[in-house]
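Continuing from the previous page...

OK, I double-checked the sequence for Bifunctional adenosylcobalamin biosynthesis protein against my notes and this is the correct one:
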Amino acid sequence: MVNDNESGERASAGRRLIIGGARSGKTAHAIALARSLSTARGRSVTYVATAQALDQEMEHRIRLHRAERPATWRTLEAPTGLAQALRNHGEADLLVIDCMTLWLSNALLKDFREDAPTAALPTWESERDQFLQWLRAVRGDVLLISNEVGAGIVPLLPLSRRFQDEQGRLNQALAAACDEVTLVVAGIAVPIKSAAGG
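Thanks. Re-ran it with the corrected sequence; updated structure tokens here:
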């Protein structure tokens, strides 16, 4: 029989994917979960931000995200080179990575060509493979936030279709590597994979 302390530690450790549509409440869920796990385990939190403030609208979004999370959390900015930044950071803190979707966009746009929409994407492929290798090996607490973008219509433009395809493949790989997966819909968190066996 597992005692309460052991059960609590087991429940709080691991890799979690939190996925949902735009404005589904996935970031709020991740922040609440990180606060709870941080308190339970007595660990600091590092918020890994992948956004880039390339225009005023994105600057505004970044300010709103900063206001949502505790001021005591550390911030690590890694719009590219995510795996390397995480390896350099170590595993002392609980990590909240927000978000996988912007990170994909940042890498995808480096190589995508409208005249060759199905060509290889070496920057993205390298970033993805290095990150998945890091994720499979990491032993600390990691909360990944990602967008579900495949539930709507097929996009009109080749870039949008390629992004949707790559996001779907990435989400599948992340889900396979994570111990738990939670789908957030209209602010409601629905467990779809549990560490216990699902």
